[in-house]
Amino acid sequence: MQTFYHALLPRSSLSCGSLEGEVASREEKQLEASLDALLSQAADLKNSLGSFIYKLENEYDRLTWPSVLDSFALLSGQLNTLNKVLKHEKTPLFRNQVIIPLVLSPDRDEDLMRQTEGRVPVFSHEVVPDHLRTKPDPEVEEQEKQLTTDAARIGADAAQKQIQSLNKMCSNLLEKISKEERESESGGLRQNKQTFNPADTNALVAAVAFGKGLSNWRPSGSSGPGQPGQPGAGTILAGASGLQQVQMTGASNQQQSMLSGVQMAQAGQPGKMPSGIKTNIKSASMHPYQR
Amino acid sequence: MEAPPVTMMPVTGGTINMMEYLLQGSVLDHSLESLIHRLRGLCDNMEPETFLDHEMVFLLKGQQASPFVLRARRSMDRTGAPWHLRYLGQPEMGDKNRHALVRNCVDIATSENLTDFLMEMGFRMDHEFVAKGHLFRKGIMKIMVYKIFRILVPGNTDSTEALSLSYLVELSVVAPAGQDMVSDDMRNFAEQLKPLVHLEKIDPKRLM
């Protein structure tokens, strides 16, 4: 971030005399990097807030609840990343930095206009108190002081008791609400809004992991040694297994044994494998490299 | 005396051990639009990417009880894209603090004669399916929302039928071994999809 009208002074340099040259420059680099990150996060947040407001103002008659939820989720995600950037260990403590204005002028400044996207045209006496302020309004400060003195006056034990009773009341209320919701008819509506089915999840995961439910699935225990499966030939057609068993009884030579080996794989499903054909298959396909 | 070389081990080449961190869930067809909308907002800003892939899973049965599994994947809608060969190891279970499924992963791009090569090596195709869906990215995380289609006639990818009425949602990261904070980031992202999709680590052995 360029510093032209104001200077960003680390508070530490005001107190101690001289810092090591490299430490200072490393801190400066860290500061710049973290400021850049913050700036980009804040810009993203501003953009999504802007688009949400636009959506609310212009499309309010067509707006659906999922769309609003999406915007909220987006905003919360961006706030999360902003918090993460602030908490990052490489971010220096901004509390230790002081901003002081160096030059105030009533003239219009084009550079400043460009940097602030036209929001701040002049760096003058009116703008600075608002933009560089760190304390809240006097009335707000008064109220805050009032609240803190009230809180201090109560005493630790009483405060703890009040906190506990508040928590208890909140949990009671939550329980009542959830019970009411469960019993009322909106529970029936909830069924419609169910967005995922756990049984489907399991089926899909099993399909991707080991092919359960896909056409070539064989249970893990039943496959014989070294089956000569032609590509894609393992289809289990339940209706055809009777036909294959008939063909198997006539198998004797190598060629036919190869074929019936494949069919045997399917008929092997219900576990009926005549041993004669099995030995044929063994000799034919035990060592795929030795042909 | 000269200083010994930087590495005392013989340099044999090889790759860094990459692990795949995985969270899975599903979403019903009618809620797909809401999920896509939310993912478009949460993920990196890019053109919405769809894919249509044909995956074949090959087994090599050796003397050991468990066969060696390789997955070959080809893109059906992008001509000229290389085939993708992937090995996935057994998931590392046991660590309850780890929020994602972790398994060893080796990815290789290959030319088109992959299936012939695997057949000659002795692999046999176990099953195949077609995956059609959307792909999103957020940093190193990859989110895939896709529907699995069963292939009715082996080898013919035109005759397919959907396996279920849901789309599978997978959140995965491929990272070098030992980076467990990746699973924390994945869990935080999964929280943001919460009421729509429940992403969790599902142990495939439980579903056998």
From TrEMBL, chain A:
It comes from the Eukaryota. This is Mediator of RNA polymerase II transcription subunit 8. The lineage of its organism: Eukaryota, Metazoa, Chordata, Craniata, Vertebrata.
TrEMBL record, chain B:
It comes from Orycteropus afer afer. This is Mediator of RNA polymerase II transcription subunit 18. One of its GO terms (molecular function) is transcription coregulator activity. Component of the Mediator complex, which is composed of MED1, MED4, MED6, MED7, MED8, MED9, MED10, MED11, MED12, MED13, MED13L, MED14, MED15, MED16, MED17, MED18, MED19, MED20, MED21, MED22, MED23, MED24, MED25, MED26, MED27, MED29, MED30, MED31, CCNC, CDK8 and CDC2L6/CDK11. The MED12, MED13, CCNC and CDK8 subunits form a distinct module termed the CDK8 module. Mediator containing the CDK8 module is less active than Mediator lacking this module in supporting transcriptional activation. Keywords: Activator, Nucleus, Transcription, Transcription regulation. The lineage of its organism: Eukaryota, Metazoa, Chordata, Craniata, Vertebrata. It comes from the Eukaryota. Component of the Mediator complex, a coactivator involved in the regulated transcription of nearly all RNA polymerase II-dependent genes. Mediator functions as a bridge to convey information from gene-specific regulatory proteins to the basal RNA polymerase II transcription machinery. Mediator is recruited to promoters by direct interactions with regulatory proteins and serves as a scaffold for the assembly of a functional preinitiation complex with RNA polymerase II and the general transcription factors. One of its GO terms (biological process) is regulation of transcription by RNA polymerase II. The keyword Cell division does not apply. GO terms for cellular component: core mediator complex; mediator complex. Its main location: nucleus. It is found in: Nucleus. Belongs to the Mediator complex subunit 18 family. InterPro entries: Mediator_Med18.
